[in-house]
């Protein structure tokens, strides 16, 4: 009899555990994916702010991050235009950065999106990697060593590193 008395709480406990683990596995594709990137908080921030992310598979999450590469690059581009208008010098470096962002937007982002949609993640990783290189070259273009767009460049770089890390799950 004692054993039978224990049965309901045991059953309850088993059901409770299975509900918990089900909930964890549903909620955590984003969490799991972001954990394996170099900037977890940034990854969570961008993925969770996209309304489509809760339904997305890893390719979908990679596409959201590539889109973030695009928007952060556009922000950096806008900052460069502001700086050029101020006319405080460093025009050559600023123009070099403007060219860099153009490459990121017209080449890297485009290639990455196409590649992900075609199921060709190697080229997508290439696009994200190249974005990191492009932004680093913009930062290095200022002879004074003081870039007015460091903050924007760092954001693009971090976002691109997260995108590359997500894409590597697909290789
Ligand atoms: C991208 O960069 C990572 C880390 O630096 C490297 O391991 C990987 O081989 C690169 N991928 C491509 C396609 O160049």
Topology:
Layout: H1 2-35, H2 40-48, H3 58-86, H4 91-118, H5 121-139, H6 150-168
Bound molecules: 2-acetamido-2-deoxy-beta-D-glucopyranose.
2-acetamido-2-deoxy-beta-D-glucopyranose binds at residues 122, 125-126, 129, 164.
Bound compounds: 2-acetamido-2-deoxy-beta-D-glucopyranose
What is the global morphology?
elongated
For the report, how would you describe the main beta sheet?
none
Radius of gyration: 22 Å
CATH class: Mainly Alpha
Regions with pLDDT < 50 over 5+ consecutive residues?
none
Average pLDDT, to the nearest integer? 91
Family: Belongs to the PMEI family.
Protein name: Cell wall / vacuolar inhibitor of fructosidase 1-like
Keywords: Disulfide bond, Signal
InterPro entries: C/VIF1, Invertase/methylesterase_inhib, Pectinesterase_inhib_dom
Features:
mainly alpha, Butyryl-CoA Dehydrogenase, subunit A, domain 3, elongated, Cell wall / vacuolar inhibitor of fructosidase 1-like
Please provide a written account of the structure.
Keywords: Disulfide bond, Signal. This is Cell wall / vacuolar inhibitor of fructosidase 1-like. GO terms for molecular function: enzyme inhibitor activity. By secondary structure, this protein is an all-alpha fold. It has one domain (2-168): Butyryl-CoA Dehydrogenase, subunit A, domain 3, CATH 1.20.140. It has 6 helices and no strands. The protein has helices at 2-35, 40-48, 58-86, 91-118, 121-139, 150-168. Bound molecules: 2-acetamido-2-deoxy-beta-D-glucopyranose (NAG). 2-acetamido-2-deoxy-beta-D-glucopyranose binds at residues 122, 125-126, 129, 164.
């Amino acid at each position: 009899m004692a054993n039978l008395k224990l049965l309901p709480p045991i059953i309850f406990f088993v059901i409770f555990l299975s509900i918990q683990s089900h909930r964890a596995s549903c909620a955590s594709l984003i969490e799991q994916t972001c954990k394996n990137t170099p900037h977890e908080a940034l990854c969570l921030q961008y993925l969770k702010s996209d309304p489509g992310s809760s339904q997305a598979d890893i390719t979908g999450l990679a596409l959201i991050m590539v889109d973030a590469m695009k928007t952060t690059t556009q922000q950096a581009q806008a900052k460069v235009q502001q700086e050029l208008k101020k006319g405080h010098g460093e025009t050559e470096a600023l123009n070099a950065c403007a060219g860099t962002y153009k490459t990121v937007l017209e080449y890297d982002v485009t290639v990455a999106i196409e590649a992900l949609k075609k199921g060709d993640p190697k080229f997508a990783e290439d696009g994200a990697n190249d974005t990191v290189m492009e932004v680093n070259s913009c930062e290095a273009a200022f002879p004074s060593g003081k870039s007015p767009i460091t903050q924007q460049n760092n954001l693009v770089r971090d976002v691109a590193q997260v995108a590359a890390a997500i894409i590597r799950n697909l290789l």
